[in-house]
Amino acid sequence: MTYFKSPKIYRFLFLLLLFTFIKANAEETEIPVPSAPAIAASSFILEDYNTGKVLAENNADTKLAPASLTKILTVYVVFNEIKNGHLKLTDKVTISQNAWKTSGSKMFVKVNDQVEVQDLIKGVIIQSGNDASVALAEHVAGNEATFAELMNQHAARLGMVNSHFENSDGLPSDGHYTTARDLSILTTSLIKEFPEFYPWFSQKEFTYNKITQQNRNMLLSRDPSVDGVKTGHTDEAGYCLVASALRNGMRLISVVMGTESVNARANENQTLLNYGFRFFESHRLYEGKKAIQENRIWKGETENVSVGLAEDLYVTIPRRRYNDLKATVNIDKQIIAPVNAGDKLGSVTVTLKGEPVGTKSLIALKAVEKGGILRQLYDGALMMMGKSDAK
Question: Are the C-beta atoms of residues 135 and 95 closer than 8 Å to each other?
Answer without folding.
Answer: yes
